């Protein structure tokens, strides 16, 4: 298996496990995204890989975009261009990979981390897992496909509440809402994900891939258009005073004071 700086890759039989590993919250920056894209591409081409498990190192699945890293590039990088270069490609590659992906959600999944979690095919959550919209917490709007996948899974009204209040959703609530397929004790997550992935990997790989393609066509046919539109709206939100205040408050570890402009 390839060696990466921010991603651990392990294969057991037909199951390839990808572990996001960038302390302390597995937040993404461009080099980590590039590694993830490369690993997904290689997994698609490797015939011995029949199912993937995606999880995070430590007690966090992923905090999403590294806000500090992006803040340093403020004014030099367009939100729209950034999404086109990074998370839009990640979400599309995950959905177009004709091999099932089991999300082993080991802890908090926020922002783009939530979008990546929801792009997996089946999700098992540790009891400590939390699902956080995140974007509105720093004066931004939906990206990473969440404007499509979140309402698709939980319904429009519930998705609106989750997004508008930015309240973390517990693992138990996520199970009740349909965000995850099952919840297990924290120490049982890796084994539960490996068991499920092993069962799937013993199945008819080609037929499962075609089934995923059919589900994409039936329920996610507009994904590419949605991702582009999210980028347009994020460009607008990223230029607001509220976003600047949200980032400043986040970095200064204080509550933001929004003015609605």
Q: Termini, distance in Å?
A: 49 Å
Q: How would a crystallographer describe the biggest sheet?
A: 6 strands, mixed
Give the strand order of the largest sheet, numbering strands 1, 2, ... along the chain: 1-2-3-5-7-10
Stretches with pLDDT under 50, minimum 5 residues: none
Can you identify the CATH class?
Alpha Beta
Number of strands: 10
Number of helices: 12
CATH-level-4 superfamily name: 2-enoyl-CoA Hydratase, Chain A, domain 1
The figure for the number of domains is 1
Q: What Rg, in angstroms, do the CA atoms define?
A: 18 Å
Query: What structural class is derived from the secondary structure elements?
Result: alpha/beta
* Multimeric organization: single chain
């Amino acid at each position: 298996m390839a060696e990466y700086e921010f991603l651990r890759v392990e294969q057991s039989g037909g199951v390839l496990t990808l572990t996001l590993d960038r302390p302390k919250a597995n937040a993404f920056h461009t080099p980590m995204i590039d590694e993830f894209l490369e690993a997904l591409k290689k997994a698609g081409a490797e015939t011995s890989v029949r199912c993937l498990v995606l999880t995070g190192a430590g007690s966090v699945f992923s905090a999403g975009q590294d806000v500090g890293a992006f803040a340093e590039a403020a004014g030099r990088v367009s939100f729209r261009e950034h999404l086109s270069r990074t998370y839009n490609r990640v979400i599309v590659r995950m959905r177009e990979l004709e091999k099932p992906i089991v999300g082993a959600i080991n802890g908090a999944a926020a922002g783009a981390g939530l979008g990546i979690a929801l792009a997996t095919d089946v999700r098992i959550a540790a009891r400590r897992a939390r699902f956080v919209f995140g974007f509105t917490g720093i004066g931004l709007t939906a990206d990473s496909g969440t404007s499509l996948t979140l309402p698709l899974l939980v319904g429009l009204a519930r998705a609106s509440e989750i997004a508008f209040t930015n309240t973390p959703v517990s693992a138990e609530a996520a199970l009740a809402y349909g965000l995850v397929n099952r919840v297990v004790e924290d120490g049982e997550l890796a084994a539960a994900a490996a068991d499920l992935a092993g069962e799937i990997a013993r199945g008819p790989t080609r037929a499962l891939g075609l089934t995923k393609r059919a589900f994409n066509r039936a329920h996610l046919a507009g994904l590419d258009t949605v991702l582009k539109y999210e980028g347009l709206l994020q460009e607008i939100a990223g230029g607001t005073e509220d976003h600047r205040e949200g980032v400043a408050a986040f970095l200064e570890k204080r509550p933001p004071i929004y003015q609605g402009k």
